[in-house]
Structure prediction request, 184 residues.
Amino acid sequence: MADPSLFRDDFTMISHNLVYNFVLSAAEEESGATFARYVHRRIRVNTQKGSDSLTHIILPLRPTEAISFMRARIVQPDGSSLQLSGQLEYMGTAKEPKAVLSIPPVPVGGELEYETEGLVKNDFAGAEYFQWEYPTLETHFKIIYPKKYFIRTTSRNGYPQATSYTKPEGNVLEVKTGIIQAKK
Prediction:
């Protein structure tokens, strides 16, 4: 059982998983895509304030990223789930675009779970953040890339260094963590 203090904030990020896949299909490469970006998150709502404020899923995007797939659901406190649907609205600026999906409120004790796949064009560099204003119980970051490339990663502020290994589809850099405290 996790430390109960991790559930005192309005939200707790149960899991945050991110994959950058640079091994693309011929069709994806022809479209100009550089890599596919997969995001999977589970967020637990701990307070009524958190429930009242969670009426949209806001997806920060890379400047040249287009969402190609999204699936989302609300898991009720009793374990039943509600599949979400709707139209993504794109907003933000060219430098900081966002996609937004309006959703019904997630009840206290319930979870919002979603996954997206986006294709990113003309972009090889970037940064990802895994510490939020609320605690995160588990993170998983993976980069899959062709064997002919070299990728360098840098971890900061105690985030572990990535381990590397080879699979038939390419090289993999991967890092997993346990609890990351809330950024205050």
